[in-house]
Design a protein that fits this description.
single chain, 340 residues, alpha/beta, Rossmann fold, eight-stranded mixed β-sheet, 11 strands, globular
Length: 340
């Protein structure tokens, strides 16, 4: 029987050293609030939780969690998380990484962990900038962004993290905005139950080097119109009074007002996070405001075999057919002799 925890039990005694107003504060709060429920759902005690990080502002997170932690090196958090989970499948492994940390130097580790479907929970803090190293553009910076390393504006199209996940045959992708702690808590609780690699993209604000990067959808006056929270099995409704919805016309998603132009509630799509087909998930991930609301919540959550299971199965098969089972048997196998 596991202990009953509260969010306070997952808060360390370390002073949080993110800038005042940084979106990472809110994501941290959501994680700490989710962990007690995760512990109960998985039936594990706090000592079974590990938080791994790379390098960057978000990678300070292990210090602020009262769990085991590993502050690793730039871009390699996913590799370390993979090794840890394979060696200790009983652990609940959480990874904190930034858009530069995970998608630039760590890009290959990121997509291959997803391809392998390793049972780890990747929290991708996306502020569209390198914050810790003082404002260089990142793989998710908007086209034309003026930064320390692009003084005349970037000339590169940014990554859409969710599209990378789908391209790597990912089984779980969710997206949240830093100011919505309640939805992010739900995301983390769902991610923990997923058997496979879960990627939770958190759209965070860097008040120093990229302030307002997501304000076009996060500002209070526009959030209801420009975001939609998806929940499996529920109608895709949004707007201040849920008066708008998403419909499918000509194979494309369209935003409509229910009750106008002949559209009824029956026309509104129902979210299916569990379908193996990536067609709809692809369109939901790629929606952009103001034409369409940006999709938040759990967008994809499907089942598949996991790397952990496959490694264990192979190990057992090799072990069953092996003639040598330990070092002592190895030393006494074949031709042996004694030296006197």
């Amino acid at each position: 029987m596991t202990m009953k925890y509260t969010a306070k039990d997952f808060k360390s005694n370390q002073q949080v050293r993110w800038c005042p107003g940084c979106g990472d504060h809110a994501v941290l709060a959501a994680i700490q609030r989710a962990m007690p429920q995760v512990s109960e759902n998985l039936g594990i005690d706090k000592e079974k939780f590990v938080v791994v990080s790379g390098i960057g502002c978000s990678s300070r997170l292990p210090y602020y969690m009262d769990t085991f932690g590993f502050h690793s090196i730039h871009g390699r958090a996913t590799a370390i998380s993979t090794g840890l989970k394979v060696a200790r499948p009983d652990l609940s492994v959480w990874q904190a990484c930034g858009d530069g940390d995970a998608l630039a130097i760590g890009g290959n580790h990121f997509i291959h962990a997803i391809r392998r479907n390793v049972v780890i929970n990747i929290i991708l803090f996306n502020n569209q900038i390198y914050g810790l190293t003082k404002g260089q553009y990142s793989p998710t910076s908007k086209f034309g962004a003026v930064t320390k390393t692009s003084p005349y504006g970037t000339v590169e199209n940014p990554f859409t993290p969710g599209m990378l996940v789908l391209g790597a045959r990912g089984t779980f992708f969710a997206r949240g905005i830093d100011v919505d702690i309640k939805t992010n808590q739900e995301i983390f609780e769902t991610a923990a139950l997923h058997k496979g690699a879960s990627v939770c993209e958190m759209l965070t604000n860097c008040v120093i080097f990229n302030d307002g990067a997501h304000s076009a959808i996060t500002a209070k006056e526009v959030r209801a119109e420009r975001t939609i929270i998806l929940r499996h099995g529920e109608k895709m409704l949004f707007g201040a009074e849920n008066e708008k919805g998403l419909v499918l016309e000509g194979g494309r998603i369209k935003a409509v007002t229910v009750g106008q132009d002949g559209y009824t509630i029956d026309d509104v799509l129902v979210h299916d996070a569990h379908t193996q087909d990536t067609y709809m998930h692809n369109m939901l991930i790629d929606m952009k405001a103001p034409e369409l609301p940006v999709a938040l919540g759990v967008i994809r959550d499907v089942e598949d075999t996991t790397y952990d299971e496959n490694v264990e199965q192979q190990f057992q098969e090799v072990k069953a057919g092996a003639k040598v089972h330990n070092v002592d048997e190895l030393l006494h196998s074949g031709s042996t002799w004694e030296v006197r």
